[in-house]
Amino acid sequence: MLKKQSKLAESKLADLKTLTDQLIDRDFFLKKKERMLEDLIENSPAPVMIWSLDDQMKFSSFTGKLEGVNIKLGMSIQEFLKTDDENNILLKEIKSVFNGKNTGVLVHKNSKFYCTNLTPLHDYHNKVVGVCGTTWDLTLMLETSNHFQDLIEKGEMKNELYRKIGTSSISDYIKKQRKS
99 φ, ψ to 5°? Predict the structure, then answer.
């Protein structure tokens, strides 16, 4: 009887070690993914925020920063948007994501242009339990694009690029503009 209990204890100990190793591996994997996400946000050519809503349409996470955007955990999307109007384009699209649809929307608000991609979050049973959103402030990029389009139409693109930024790299120009 004692021998049988000893084997059972050894088996349980081995199972516990396996589970511990799996948790360590997952923790390492999650930390690596978090660093990748931080790098993505930091090196994005446009300001970006990544966020999620739970099944009650309340913010459950967010990272990144957009000027003038103030999100609080637990805040409802309606409270954030300051509307519960069923015709609001962002609310309509978010509700469609709860039906399993990947979608996106471009919003112009307060002289800013925001592009938001929306993806369903699933549980282990493949049930949609939330929404993951990635929102970019494209204002500076669009302004820069419009400026470059004007220069192209005037035939002054190459000279203007070198004169203003010393390079033909648009992404360098955008980064410089973001810092100023």
Answer: -95, 10
Question: Among 107, 36, 33, which Cα is nearest to 69's?
Answer: 107
* Contact in structure between 77 and 58 (CB atoms under 8 Å): yes
- Give the strand order in the sheet containing 128-137: 59-64, 48-53, 128-137, 112-122, 103-109
* DSSP annotation string for 59-117: EEEEEE--TT----TT-BHHHHHT---TT-HHHHHHHHHTTT--EEEEEEETTEEEEEE
Tens of pLDDT, residues 29-56: 777 777 776 777 677 767 888 899 999 9
User: What is the rounded CA–CA span in Å between residue 170 and residue 174?
Assistant: 6
The helix (run of H) or strand (run of E) holding residue 41 is: helix 2-42
Single out the residue of 126, 75, 77, 120 nearest to residue 101, CA to CA: 120
Q: Which amino acid is at 51?
A: W
pTM across the whole model: 0.63
Nearest alpha carbon to residue 170 among 155, 115, 153, 149: 149
Question: Can you tell me the distance from the alpha carbon of 119 to that of 43, in angstroms, rounded to the nearest whole number?
Answer: 22
